[in-house]
Amino acid sequence: MTGRVFGQGPSAYDAAASWWSERLSVLKYPEAYSGLCHTALNGHLLSRVVDIGTGGGDLARAAIGACPSIETLHLVDTSARMLEAAQAALRSVDGPDVTVEQTDMELLQPCRSFDIALAGHVIEHASDPVLALRQLAGLVRPGGVLLLVVSRPHICQFPIWLRWRHRWFSETQMRRMTKEAMLGAVDCMPLAAGVPARTSRGYLIAVP
């Protein structure tokens, strides 16, 4: 979705944009993202947010619901149609000013200005996931955080892999890669029951 892709490129996500969020809704990902954001972001005063690989904007919507303090939201994706879908979905949400940028994550300049970087199922598609973590951290101010949703090992990954050619990482692997990226403390959080719980984990990572 963003970064130099390991699996499918932007055209595959352009083709999926018309049904992406509906499919995630059927699988209960929006509810899982909402629960994750309320758990992970409780007590955080966030103003500036960047969502890398936003897709249909589902993780961004969950963050807005959990943090009324968010004032600006910058959506990034390689797929123009995904960005259009995310903008359309967020028009119905009261809250932050929304801007969009169609680009690869690796082309973003480190700005260290956002309070948090969101990335739902992004680093699994990067050719170098440690570098992807560093690139995400480069967007966030010192003392900010990353909130990631990452594919975890489970037999359910194989039919997903047939379509998207992604990777998946255990908690041990994520902690090792985070350490290699020279980031801070890591909190690993399960997602709600059902498909999200089987396929994904949430990670809240401190940015030094």
From TrEMBL:
<dbReference type="Pfam" id="PF08242">
    <property type="entry name" value="Methyltransf_12"/>
</dbReference>
<keyword id="KW-0949">S-adenosyl-L-methionine</keyword>
<dbReference type="GO" id="GO:0008168">
    <property type="term" value="F:methyltransferase activity"/>
</dbReference>
<keyword id="KW-0489">Methyltransferase</keyword>
<protein>
    <submittedName>
        <fullName>Methyltransferase family protein</fullName>
    </submittedName>
</protein>
<keyword id="KW-0808">Transferase</keyword>
<feature type="domain" description="Methyltransferase type 12">
    <location>
        <begin position="50"/>
        <end position="146"/>
    </location>
</feature>
<dbReference type="InterPro" id="IPR029063">
    <property type="entry name" value="SAM-dependent_MTases_sf"/>
</dbReference>
<dbReference type="InterPro" id="IPR013217">
    <property type="entry name" value="Methyltransf_12"/>
</dbReference>
<dbReference type="GO" id="GO:0032259">
    <property type="term" value="P:methylation"/>
</dbReference>
